[in-house]
Amino acid sequence: MSFSHLGLSDKVLAAVAATGYTTPTPIQEQAIPHVLARRDVLGIAQTGTGKTAAFVLKRAAPGHECPAP
């Protein structure tokens, strides 16, 4: 699967591609659609598998802004 199948905006996809990433890790593939749907997510995966990136992408996605705290 590629990042383009996860529901991310073209702007976010371009930014991901610019960093050199081509394929999401399993935790990203499973978490991103739920994060974009504003669901609570608990993800457990080894260090370095992209958990933080999966949640940061939501902040970068137009129309999916997080409400202010």
Q: Spans with pLDDT under 50 lasting ≥5 residues?
A: none
> Biggest sheet, open or closed, and with what strands and sense?
none
Structural class: mainly alpha
What is the averaged pLDDT score?
80
Radius of gyration: 11 Å
SSE ordering: HHH
Number of strand segments: 0
Question: How large a portion of the residues is in β-strands, by DSSP E?
Answer: under 5%
What is the number of helices? 3
N-to-C terminal Cα separation, in Å?
A: 33 Å
Q: What is the helical fraction, as a range of percent?
A: 40-55%
The outline comes out as globular
Main attributes of the structure:
mainly alpha, globular
Account of the 3D structure:
- The chain has 69 residues and is an all-alpha fold.
- 43% of the residues lie in helices and 0% in strands.
- The protein contains three helices and no strands.
- The protein has helices spanning 10-18, 26-36, 51-60.
- The radius of gyration is 11 Å and the shape is globular.
- The mean pLDDT is 80.
